[in-house]
Amino acid sequence: MSATATATLHPDEKFKAGKAGQSLFRLGLVGFIIFIAASLIFSTSAASHYTAEDLKAAPTLSASGMGRFFYAYLIGWSWILSIALGSLLFVLIHHAVKAKWSVTTRRLAEILSSTILWIGVAGLVFVIPVLAGNKDIYYWAHPDAHFPGAPGKSGWLSPAAWAARYAFYFIIWIAIAKWFEAKSRKMDEIGDVAEEGHTKTLSARMRWLSYPMIVVYALSVNYAGYDFLMGTAPKWFSTIYSVNFFGGCMMAAYASISLFAWMLQRSGRLTRSVNAEHYQDLGKMLFAFTFFWTYTAFSQFMLIWYANVPEETVFYNYRMFSEWSTVSWILLFCQFAIPFTFLLSRWTKRILPVFVAFCIWQMLFHWVDLYWNVMPHYHWGADIHGSAVSVTGPLSGPVDNNTISFNPVDVTAWLAMLFFFVAAVGRGMRGNLIPIKDPNLGASLAHENY
Amino acid sequence: MDTPDNTSVENGELYGVLAEFDTPGALIKAARKVRDAGYTEFDCYSPFPVHGIDEAMGIKRTILPLLIFGGGITGLLGGCLLQWYCNASAWHWNVSGKPLWTFPITPNNVPIAFECTILLSVFTSFFGMWILNKLPQVWHPFFRLDRFAKVTDDGFFLGIEAKDKRFDLAETRRLLESAGALEVEDCNLDPDPETRRMPIWLYGFIIVSTVFALVPFALIYRARASHSKEPHYHIFSDMDFQAKVKSDTAFDMFPDGRANRGEIPGTVARGWLEDDSAYWRGLTQDQGGEWITNFPAQVQITPELMKRGQQRFNIYCAPCHGYDGRGDGMIPQRVRKAGAGALLPRNLIDPKTGVITMPNGQVFNTISNGYNTMMGYSAQIPAQDRWAIVAYVRALERAQNAAQGDVPADKWNEINGATP
Hints:
The structure holds two protein chains of two kinds.
Chain A: H1 20-43, H2 52-57, H3 66-96, H4 103-114, H5 116-131, H6 152-156, H7 159-190, H8 202-229, H9 241-266, H10 276-307, H11 310-320, H12 324-343, H13 347-350, H14 352-374, E1 380-385, E2 388-394, H15 409-428, H16 441-445
Antiparallel strand pairs in A: 1-2
Helix pairs in contact in A: 1-3, 1-15, 3-4, 3-5, 3-7, 3-8, 3-9, 3-14, 3-15, 4-7, 4-9, 5-7, 7-8, 8-9, 9-10, 9-14, 10-12, 10-14, 12-14
Chain B: E1 14-21, H1 24-36, E2 42-45, H2 53-57, H3 64-90, H4 110-132, E3 156-161, H5 169-178, E4 183-188, H6 200-223, H7 237-240, H8 277-281, H9 303-321, H10 330-337, H11 360-369, E5 370-371, E6 374-375, H12 383-400, H13 409-418
């Protein structure tokens, strides 16, 4: 209907990655090595799964703090995974709805989503130990774990099946991310025409493939959320859990793409192609998924609170009536109330320093969200009757025992993952940072919010 | 429009001038020029929204978002207030023992408050948009110009009203022509002011439809807490009057004129085999009998029967009468806590008022058919189990009213040893 304004790429615009990728890669690698070393050192002083009394009463329980390292690593790893997964859906939706506004930021999302290959490699740090028989990462791998109410769980949550699914998810995600990036870069060379041997143009092929891939994506992310994160509390039940994780992924993606664009602009690139209009739209989506995250988190909470079934309330019991209640309240206000109130307004999304501050804020509390989701499962209870010891796993034993037990490794493992991600982004940053021959580039450059 | 000859139309007062432009771009340029010349009473007309026209015309940003925010806040507070008043203030509504109200909101009240927020935000944005855009606008002076019909197709127009302070017919026309107008036309109002008035039938329509819209509410108000001697309206009469006959009614179709077809030979109806009045009804004989004081012959008092009676009692009787029979089960405890004045369950083991004063047959009958607010349990508990409960209640009475002498001497020491 509306007349579409178009513009052309400014002749002075710097849209080449140049050497920025290599320096990012070096920076990321150095940071990763420093922080992973620090994490390993700190984890030696970390508490084990069990309380001091349990360890004293049952010397057979493992007193090693290495489990803490894996938990902190898993949280940081999920944090970077959520950025890549969110960016992947950004690309898919862009094609599915023939989006115009997001053309200038699409390549950034493609670069972020392509890091999924390296994230898959980073995950091996805990996948290989689980396969090798480590029973301190996931409680379901522990010989004492059993699921009286849901016998099917023990088959689903066995190391071999779990690792096979890990491989399956990553093959899917890597294939989607790499294919869409490759076709997008191909378009930079030959324009939006049909490749040899095909009748459809590149943009039409990407569009047609995006529809089924959104379904594949939704299912794989859903089960990945159950397997990687909810797997830390295997006795618990919640079907909306992964939807909540997905909301976090999208929030992280919109914040990260904005931060990525902002940092590139600081280096003198894309200064004219990404402007307040694009930031405002990214901000709208950030706002929308901030609320979506809250909506799903509250849905999960309210149904469990209302139904009051012990198998389900255990998740909140150990978060509301232990030390974790402080973190729960912080999450409610800092991940929802404060950003919601401020991102409502138009100007907070259009004035770049303010918007960037909110993006950093949301990324920070997205980590707190994952921390809150996983770390309360670090304390494992144990039934000790003389020499008969049975580990009852996370969310068991006295609620007061479920302390935060903060250790510096929690943060250093996260920072290690952040630098790992920076290195992975550096690897992927090459060629054009804008799809220069996209048919909708002009519309995106001239994009304007009413 | 079939009045192409503009001169034959009578013209009244000058309303303004209308200029047509070729493209959206030309319209934007012209709008900017008119704004820069200091005009304020002008508007642009186009077949579709034109990017940048707001800025070109110097229109301030709409206040609609603020109104929507206000609407949302009103919805949020209204939703909270509604639930607080309905469920926590006017009528305490206990659902699954959840708190009635905790400040600022109870989790179970969030969905309604959320929906009210959405509803009022959307209403404000929808109706606010109409009002701020001065819609619906059914008539406009420019409709008198045939050229203006193109605005729904491919015409881009800019009209300046004569009431603008800077308006000067010759000067304004020159300005528009220099801005690239294809054509500039004067627009006069109809000399007859009646044509500008809203048709009288439209007022009538609005009033009548408003009154009709209120009819359901009036009916609801009238029917509120009232009784009627009139029969119902039968909206679904085939549901109210079904093509079937009920038992023991007259029916002409059969020779004997009855709907009942009698029992089929060789069948026995439910309950017809329950001849033994002692076992099934707790009476010595059905007509003019007394409550039996012992147990019927079919009921042998064995440890198994007592165990069974205890188990059945704990399932069916204990929720009200309590596990010890003192009438203090979970339900009366909650009733008392809620301050409701219901008839409370009887203390079964009280030596004066309890069922100890009743013959066995009467206890059995009470279990079977109920008493006061207690309903009968004959549907849930088979007769044998009801007798088992009677036996268990007897044991309960005995145990709860036991004296020291009832305990054998050797056991007594045991008890004393346990509780020094």
